[in-house]
Amino acid sequence: MTVSIPSLCKTCLEAGVLILILNLILVVRKPFRTVRAEIIAFLLAVVMIRLCFPVELFYAIPLHVPAVMNPLVRLLDVRIWSEMTVTECLLMLWLTGIVVKAVIYIRNCRLMESVSAGIRKTARKTSVREILHNRSLPDYPVYVTSCLNAPCVLGKNRSIFLPVTSFTREQLDSILRHEVRHLENHDFLRKQMIEVIIIVYCWFPPVYLLRRHVFLYTEVMADGEATWNQEESERMVYARSLVEVQKQLTTGTEIPNSESALSLYLKPADRSALTWRIDLLCDRTFLRTSGGFSLILLTVLTLLSSFVILMPQFEPPVAEYSWTGEQLAESGQLISHRDGTWSLIMEGETCEVHNPCSELLTGVPVIYE
Length: 369
Fold this sequence. Notes:
Radius of gyration: 31 Å
Distance between the termini: 41 Å
Shape: elongated
Number of domains: 3
Structural class: alpha/beta
């Protein structure tokens, strides 16, 4: 398994197409209501795995696409400065971007951990069971602070943070159940993975759309699992609480880098995302299994796509040689092609012939196509 320009192009093409399909499913929802959560999870997993391993598999069959790959390869082989090619220049820019993004990401991680540690020192500490008086729920620590403007889970610390806002008991129940599901599902690690992918593919615009889809998927799944065993009336209370909480949240002191994977629920959801979350609370079919056939079909299609690798195709190089007339007549063959061109085969090499009537070629046998 090797990483090559064709394998990288194929990876970006496949990932881009799958991300656009996910965008259609998640944004244009009505035509895709039959799509289940497990299908979206499978597509997200395929995209992320493919981006993590942009390799050319040993069993891949080369598919020659000269109209696309030939110009690309020629462009990448152009020398733009001294002995440096376009490929080497782009690789340097890519590595520079990775280093810069990685430094920013590490700095934000350290800053987030520092801020969350500071909040835990000054905030009022309680717990999920103490607030909800429900011993069936995991007893994660809860910190109530004025430094945040929304309920959230910050950093790798398995704690829940609440703003100093007067929530009703129903709202607190919905908020804490939602945040507990984030912790139970290890959504922090998922978002760390997508951030690493963005660091590596910072030049590939679809990965930013992928991050939005991953964030939305984790929110939807947290809602669905938090209300899985509830009656319809209880789910409607949960949905109403979502809307009320989003309206009630006030602007406060924002945590740096609130859009990063370190914050799972720091800012209020946008209107379209909140609308979809409420729609899915009303329609439970999204969380039901779709049967094994759909997943098997998607798996087969994914495997089939890995059997092909896009490759360029160039004509074999035509060399210039010097032979005598006797050598040509003895060992050479003239080929008259249907398109009117001529070529000479000599000692296993093919040469283009511009003047087949040359005296030098007298006596050379001619083969007509």
